[in-house]
């Protein structure tokens, strides 16, 4: 009877110590699991390359350390942060607006490009070329105040549904990219959008969806005009192009709006090539990456032959320069927030 | 003998208590003194109004509380954060540049507006009007890459001296405004420059001087063009106006670059009126303020009749709407960092 409590007493420190080790291991394991900042990314070279970059630039002891003020990451939006098929969502917004506004414009029934839109005749619409598209944009994006336009965008996003997924467009954002944005910010990065899309089309919703505040959005714009209406100041949206933030316009937009060269840039099409070249040419560690749409089942598969989001020259340059190419099918465990 | 220690003992708690009060008062006094966030401002209504505004919008318990993301404050630069006499400093930079570049342009000796500059003939220069000034700006601000221009600006600031104060231009910044910027940031504000001056002329030095990073600078700009030179991407500065961030252009610039309406705006001239009107028209607590140059001795005194930084209509509107008017002579204990 005596020996058992005695052994027990002698063993107690050991048991305590073992328990502690087990507890610590358990905690470490739980922490490691909880601490995967990119759970929607499959393990592999791509995930590893992205995590390694973020880690080294944020690590004071690393020779690749970059002070927080210089940790600027830029992201294209269409096809990089949210989907862009069957057409840029802002294009679908313009088509919907034409239909909403048509009763006030009976002449549109007989006038291109509006006739094509009202008759859902995409061939005739495409035949109108860029000139037709600009006319559509101006008819749907100008002629109201900035405050009114913001309300129109919010209303559309609240009611419109994507033709394939039957969900609001703001749900067609890429969950892996949302995790990446959050992880970059947790590591002292400022995450900017640098998109060919309209800056005023994006600002009303990107904070809620991506955690990116309006002031960190660079995009295309039409001109606005300040005036006092019965003493009340307004900004009227004019049917005149101000800035096209696409292709060679992206480095121009980055310089104009941010004034610092990014150290990381993410795109998905030839429209992002110059932004990646501009980012790559700075000193110190750099991360250039392209999202390659390779998943026809969960999303879409397209690259060199696509009319929307064509990825051709940029893909070649990425491969030859060793930039990261995210293979959606291979690298993403989950695509949209709503997918399993 | 007995009675004294007895009294002493009975008094001890009182003495202790009194000492505590004295200590606390002393500490509070020291704290009040140490904690004055605006030591270069004289006590009075102006300082009080500014401090009260900052306090209430940052106080969660206040009915005027504003969440940090919306705490946007915008500042004009010339005449608001640094001096602007006898001419906008960027104008003085352009004149200096003409002289530096003259040997490469022998034709300038006979051609206006260059001839006027080279002969220091300000009357002839003024006679050339806006057209002449634009020509001067283009000859001195375009025709190089953005990287080259940044180096030119930095070099000028390192060597040029102000004609009256014989100091680098970056020392002619207002110490009270620097304290205000820091106090706003300490209270969760983002402090932006929104200036008629060139954005690329300001970005190289404002972080060091005001603590304002390049990405929080909105200003006028000329166009730039992206190109690959022997494979190296550059942005070439073109002799073409892109955006004038002055007068009615300031709310346009705020909307374009920031995409949020500020809750506080500081200016000093009629060029800032629309920015203040735009700021004033938002919901919730607002602070609109003008720096009134009233101190010919320590700085300059000018307003309604001045050709540089004219303050006329905005002064009337400030008075009628109860906006804060900072009287430099009365409200500022110290003007420049180097003054006593």
UniProtKB/TrEMBL annotation, chains A, B:
Concerning InterPro entries, the annotation shows: HAD-like_SerB (IPR050582), HAD-like_sf (IPR036412), HAD_sf (IPR023214)
| Origin superkingdom | Bacteria
Q: Which Pfam families match?
A: HAD
The stretch of residues making up the signal peptide is none
Q: SUPFAM superfamilies per the record?
A: HAD-like
Q: Which protein are we looking at?
A: Haloacid dehalogenase
Organism listed in the record: Methylocaldum szegediense
Lineage of source species: Bacteria, Pseudomonadati, Pseudomonadota, Gammaproteobacteria, Methylococcales
């Amino acid at each position: 009877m005596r020996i058992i409590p005695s052994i027990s007493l002698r063993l107690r420190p050991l048991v305590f110590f073992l328990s502690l080790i087990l507890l610590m291991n358990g905690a470490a394991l739980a922490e490691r699991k909880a601490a995967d900042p990119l759970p929607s990314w499959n393990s592999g070279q791509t995930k590893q390359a992205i995590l390694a970059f973020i880690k080294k630039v944020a690590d004071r002891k690393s020779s690749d350390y970059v002070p927080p003020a210089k940790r600027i990451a830029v992201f294209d939006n269409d096809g990089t942060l949210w989907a862009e098929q069957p057409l840029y969502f802002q294009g679908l917004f313009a088509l919907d607006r034409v239909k909403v506004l048509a009763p006030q414009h009976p002449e549109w029934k007989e006038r291109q490009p509006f006739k094509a839109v009202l008759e859902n005749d995409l061939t005739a619409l495409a035949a109108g070329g860029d000139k037709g598209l600009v006319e559509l944009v101006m008819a749907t994006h100008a002629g109201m105040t900035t405050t009114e336009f913001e309300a129109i965008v919010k209303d559309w996003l609240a009611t419109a549904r994507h033709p394939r997924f039957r969900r609001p467009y703001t749900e067609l954002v890429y969950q892996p990219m949302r995790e990446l944005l959050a992880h970059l910010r947790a590591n002292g990065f400022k995450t900017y959008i640098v998109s060919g899309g309209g800056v005023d089309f994006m600002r009303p919703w990107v904070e809620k969806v991506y955690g990116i505040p309006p002031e960190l959005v660079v995009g295309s714009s039409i001109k606005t005009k300040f005036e006092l209406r019965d003493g009340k100041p307004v900004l009227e949206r004019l049917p005149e192009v101000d800035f096209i933030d696409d292709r060679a316009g992206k480095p121009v937009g980055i310089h104009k709006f941010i004034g610092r060269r990014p150290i990381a840039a993410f795109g998905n099409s030839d429209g992002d090539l110059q932004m990646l070249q501009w980012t790559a040419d700075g000193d110190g560690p750099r991360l250039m990456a392209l999202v390659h749409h390779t998943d026809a089942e969960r999303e879409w598969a397209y690259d060199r032959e696509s009319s929307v989001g064509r990825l051709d020259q940029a893909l070649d340059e990425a491969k030859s320069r060793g930039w990261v190419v995210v293979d959606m099918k291979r690298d993403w465990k989950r695509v949209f927030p709503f997918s399993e």
